[in-house]
Amino acid sequence: MIIETLYAHFLECTSACTDTRKLEKDCLFFALKGDHYNGNKFASQALDSGAKYCVVDEAEVAIDERYIVVDNVLETLQQLATHHRKTLNVPILALTGSNGKTTTKELIKAVLSKTNVTTATQGNLNNHIGVPLTLLQINEHTDIGIVEMGANHPKEIALLCQIAQPDYGLITNFGKAHLEGFGSLEGVIKAKSELYDYLKAHHKVIFVNENDPIQVQQTSGYEQVHKFGLPTSSDTRLKLVKSQPCVSLTYNNRTVNSQLAGTYNFNNMAVAIAVGSYFKVNREAIINAIEKYTPTNNRSQILKQGNNTIIMDAYNANPTSMLAALENFKQLQQGKKHLFLGDMFELGQTAANEHQFIVDYLEQHDLGQVYLVGENFYNTTVTSKWIQKFQTVEALKFYLNTTRVEHSFLLIKGSRGMALERILDML
């Protein structure tokens, strides 16, 4: 089917959808295929549930004019999103990075929404499916679109840039994430910098953190750059004031007090302030947005449970973010401290070394009582009496049934697959 014809059908619909469990009435349903599912088998169900049309790539399921048969549903979704993007007179800001993408995106949205109608990636739907769906949510009422881009292999960011065609972009940081796909930190830098490559080639604007030497190096010689950070050369100057219990910084002769835990969130806040400043959001509105933003979904949350205070950062973890969390926790001046650390996933052949590196750090710095959870941490070598290992969360639960953790400051951090938020119910 010619994409213009499909686009005409899309304009008749309320939205685009890929999940029969989340259908909107009169939506355009895309019957995607995966390793363990085939959306074509649910096309008729989608129509019965209220979809207006279904895009399928198995002709035998198409029994009437409500089915739109294409060669490849995923590629068609991506092509439709790009076609839609070209019809919009809306600036698109793209962001990627190893850590802090979703928090940064939410902070930017909070700031820009003070004076603009914004449409942003929902949750962390930042891949080759989520980016097209985000673009298809943008309409003529949107002033600015914010598109989060994730990747775990080279060339993925380049593909997402071709789909979204951003006008502005930024990279939160470069860290040891998804090493199974990228191979090394150098591989991460090269892959994430595909966003820089696109923006430079198309003479678009890049936001650069001058406190990050890798960002400065990767954008050397670029024409359209908005710099932010501590140096006097920065277009938006910001300085960290304190990080305990939450991050505070100075901006434009004002102190900004956030509800975000962890020194690493200084850079996430700085990005949002720089973007807001560039787009002429006034100072008071920017400060209000940052100070009112409350973290959710197990990302840098400070929780109170009984007489314990908890830093809940269990949404995800990699060697860089884990070390940053430990460095931040080390600075806390509280009394009793407990650390619940779960395995870091997608590290490939580096997994054993990276987990042992974290253990070696913990042995060199007495941060408190440490509980390591997961196969990778369980297989590390531990000599310190303050570090205990548990092969599974269930094993930890059995231990906590006989041990009380009270009047303490806790850090809970691990990869999403570990679901360490379950620990809250065990304490």
TrEMBL record:
Catalytic activity from the UniProt record:
D-alanyl-D-alanine + UDP-N-acetyl-alpha-D-muramoyl-L-alanyl-gamma-D-glutamyl-meso-2,6-diaminopimelate + ATP = UDP-N-acetyl-alpha-D-muramoyl-L-alanyl-gamma-D-glutamyl-meso-2,6-diaminopimeloyl-D-alanyl-D-alanine + ADP + phosphate + H(+)
Provide a GO CC annotation, any one.
Answer: cytoplasm
For this chain's UniProt record, which GO biological process terms are given? cell division; cell wall organization; peptidoglycan biosynthetic process; regulation of cell shape
Annotated localization: Cytoplasm
Record's keyword annotation contains Magnesium: no
Q: Which GO terms describe its molecular function?
A: ATP binding; UDP-N-acetylmuramoyl-tripeptide-D-alanyl-D-alanine ligase activity; UDP-N-acetylmuramoylalanyl-D-glutamyl-2,6-diaminopimelate-D-alanyl-D-alanine ligase activity
Its pathway?
A: Cell wall biogenesis; peptidoglycan biosynthesis
Can you give the residue ranges of the Mur ligase C-terminal domain?
Answer: 299-387
- Which residues of the sequence carry a binding annotation for ATP? 97-103
Provide the top EC class: ligase
Q: Mind telling me which Pfam families this protein's record contains?
A: Mur_ligase (PF01225), Mur_ligase_C (PF02875), Mur_ligase_M (PF08245)
Q: Where is the Mur ligase central domain?
A: 96-275
Asked whether the keyword Manganese is assigned, the reply is: no
In short, the EC number is 6.3.2.10
What range(s) does the Mur ligase N-terminal catalytic domain occupy? 18-84
Q: Which SUPFAM superfamilies match?
A: MurD-like peptide ligases, catalytic domain, MurD-like peptide ligases, peptide-binding domain, MurE/MurF N-terminal domain
Provide this UniProt record's keywords sorted from A to Z: ATP-binding, Cell cycle, Cell division, Cell shape, Cell wall biogenesis/degradation, Cytoplasm, Ligase, Nucleotide-binding, Peptidoglycan synthesis
User: At the top level of its lineage, which domain of life is listed?
Assistant: Bacteria
InterPro entries, per the entry: Mur-like_cat_sf (IPR036565), Mur_ligase_C (IPR004101), Mur_ligase_C_dom_sf (IPR036615), Mur_ligase_cen (IPR013221), Mur_ligase_N (IPR000713), MurCDEF_CellWall_CoF430Synth (IPR051046), MurE/MurF_N (IPR035911), UDP-N-AcMur_synth (IPR005863)
The role this protein plays is:
Involved in cell wall formation. Catalyzes the final step in the synthesis of UDP-N-acetylmuramoyl-pentapeptide, the precursor of murein.
Q: Which family does it belong to?
A: Belongs to the MurCDEF family. MurF subfamily.
Its recorded name reads UDP-N-acetylmuramoyl-tripeptide--D-alanyl-D-alanine ligase
